[in-house]
Amino acid sequence: MLGGFELTDATDVPELGSFLFTVRDMHGEHDEAILVRCADPEAAPPEGAVLDSVEADDADGDDDSSEPLAVEAWINRCPHEDQRLDRGQGAAMRDGQVICPKHGSMFDSCSGYCDNGEAKGTNLVPLDLEIEDGVVYLTDDDYRLVGAGGIDDDDDGPSSTSHIGF
Ligand code: FES
User: Fold this and answer.
1) C-alpha distances out from residue 62 to 11, 38, 66, 67, Å
2) Atom of ligand 1 nearest to the CA of 114
């Protein structure tokens, strides 16, 4: 088993949308992050980003379901302004890009880069992750997993299920 924090099964990351979770940084501050599917596993990630993939489930035995299922993790915040990309119902996505709900800039789900609109020239903040046996692990030295869900999802904060896998 990998060192790190178990997040979820890679197949739980929606094809259109995102898996929202909460992390704590080295200063003890909570932040939200999202897992999204990466539409183009061949895309070159920016320095520091990690491209992880797992073979998709082949429930029906068809060859077409053996495409690698890649996911990426990003801090849930548009770099243009302090705007959550996933506001609790999943981030809006189209054509392999995450759409900022405030001004509509679109970020490549694989690289995090934006080449359009108000946020043009910026990049989402990546988190390191790895996949083993179809399970996504947060392996970023700068963040610890607090739990699934957003910071304000309920009065008790995000769930703090036992994801520690060191
Ligand atoms: S806040 Fe996201 S593009 Fe402006």
Assistant:
1) 17, 21, 8, 11
2) 3
**pTM for the predicted model, two decimal places:** 0.79
Query: pLDDT digit string (tens) for 66-96?
Result: 556 799 999 999 999 999 999 999 999 999 9
Ligand 1, from 102, 106, 113, 116: best to mutate by most atoms within 8 Å of Cβ?
A: 102
5-148 is classed CATH 3.30.460.10: no
Q: Where are the domains of the chain?
A: 5-148
Indicate whether residue 102 lines ligand 1 (CB < 6 A). Answer: yes
What's the gap in Å between 81 CA and the centre of ligand 1?
5
